Amino acid sequence: MNDQDLQQLIEHISLKFFNKPFIGGAKFNHRLRTTGGRYIPAQRLIEINPKYLTELGEEELIGIIKHELCHYHPHVEGKPYHHRSQEFRTLMKKVDAPRFCTILPSEEDKRYLLYQCIKCKMTYRRKRKINVQRYRCGKCRGSLKLIK
């Protein structure tokens, strides 16, 4: 799928779920890492992370497009379009758009740090970095080391 196909898909989804035309621009942005897509109000541009199409498929991509269109249409009409606004939330419920996108399988491993006990080889997954000089293994009181 290229940028023109993405543009046509967004126009189709906009007419099907919102009953309004999409006049803005759409393109893939390969630099997006932690988000599925974003709407840039000044340019009326929707950018989509192409990894979501390749790793999770078209169903997830359609959900991301619906979410971004929930930003686009209120903005064009001069209504509040941010996540906290009531208009945005009711529109998301109406079209069944997801609030958050699924975490990419390729990015999920990068979210956690892995520690291992030197004595008993017990492993610990942590989101935050811990001080291995201060903390010990909960099973055998051995020293910990950072694996990944």
Descriptive account of the structure:
It is a single chain. The protein is of the alpha+beta class and 148 residues long. The protein starts with a helix and ends with a strand. The model has no long low-confidence stretch (mean pLDDT 92). Helix 1 packs across helix 3 and helix 3 runs antiparallel to helix 4. The strands form 2 sheets. Strands 1-3-2 form a 3-stranded mixed sheet. Strands 5-4-6 form a 3-stranded antiparallel sheet, with no helix packed on it. The protein has helices at 3-18, 51-56, 58-76, 86-95, 105-108, and strands at residues 25-28, 37-40, 45-48, 113-117, 123-126, 144-146. A hairpin with a 5-residue loop joins strand 4 (113-117) and strand 5.
End-to-end separation in angstroms reads: 34 Å
Strand content: 15-25%
| Helix and strand sequence | HEEEHHHHEEE
Sheet with most strands: strand arrangement: 1-3-2
pLDDT < 50 stretches? none
State the shape.
elongated
Q: What is the mean predicted local confidence, pLDDT?
A: 92
